[in-house]
Amino acid sequence: MEARIIRRSLVTVAVGLAMGTAGVANATNGYFSHGYGTKAKGMGGVGMAISQDAYAPGINPAGIAGMETRFDASVAYFRPERSFEASDPHRPPEQGEFPLAGGSVDSDSNNFFIPSLAFVQQIDEDRSWGVALLGNGGMNTDYPAIARDCPDPQGGTAPVPGRGVFCDGTAGVNLEQLAIIPTYAQKFMDGRVSVGFSPIISYQRFSAEGISTFGEMSEDPDNLSSGRTDSSWGYGAQVGFQAELAEGARVGASYRSKIRAGDFDRYAGLFVDGGDFDIPSTYGLGFSVDVTPNVTLSADYQKIRYSEIDAIANPSANIYGFMMGDPDSRFGGSSGPGFGWDDVNIFRFGAQIDGGNGWTWRVGYNRGENPISSDDVTLNILAPAVMEDHFTAGFTREFGQHEINFAAMYAPRQRVRGENFLYEGQDVEIEMRQYELEIGYAYRF
Questions:
Q1: What is the helix (H) or strand (E) element at residue 17, kind and residue range?
Q2: Which pLDDT band, with edges at 50, 70 and 90, does 11 fall under?
């Protein structure tokens, strides 16, 4: 009776904490995290075929089938360093052109703390249910109101004094996403095959400021750059399986549907179709093998289909349609500009070593594709999610029913360079580098 009360209390506290601290700022594989759960993060994010904690539904819902009752909580310190550099303007802008100030500008607000929470209840040896609360983000920037020369709003050829990257003061965006993932999973065929299913409830928030300069290019200028936070709820589902191919060899796969979310009405003048902003579908496949009794090697492949989301995938050059007379090509229009992100293919590799005496050691590597092309660097000053390589390490220390988990990630600097699509002949380079340290605690009932 006492254990049941403790479990219910932990779940209640977990949901409350996650909803109160949903804000995240990670930008690793696009705006998806490089992994979910401290153990998986230490192994490059692998988890399709190997599942070790209550965070498993973030990668493959089949992973909790028959898992012991446990509660996991973690907090990550995440530091993304974002900046851009533009070459000096070489001529006065013409009507409709917008040069950036020459030089380099760093984004502020580099330090973030990101919580994750999860719980699994074992029903019997073959069945378990659970709930995980996990975050995504990455479209997060905060550029200072730098002093600069700005195009004359009256149409004159001589520049006028102004402030801000886009001549509208402090500029940046902030996207925060929380996924609430209740899950049921069960083993079949004498425990050799596991299947799991999760309905997904998403909650996301977004704000943007410092871009009202582009109001003439927007379908709804009053809802382009208010600085106000808007929110929406969405829904989707995922399914996954894991199977034992032979003793010590496992395979797993999962599919997550596109999450259909409500519109960001306060940004109907920014995002395509009047504020539409869904979350893309993903699918993946993984293998894991115990090469010795103490050493496990794992590898995953995953695809994130950003091309499904017009607000993310539409090329920024779509604005040229408006300049040619098509009103639907304005910001917020049905064929308006987006961030030009491509689909992303991700390859994850991890190794785990059982060191004995309650110690487990992990290393990993995550290789994701940069979704941003050189044609779309200008708008992605606001969302420079260009990361490709992620190097990880971690460990677990067990104390009876308790676990302390740790993971570290380093993503070296990545750059993308291209021409300012609003000012011919000006080069723009966006870049990012990342660090993350995560510590977690788990209690096994």
A1: helix 2-20
A2: very low
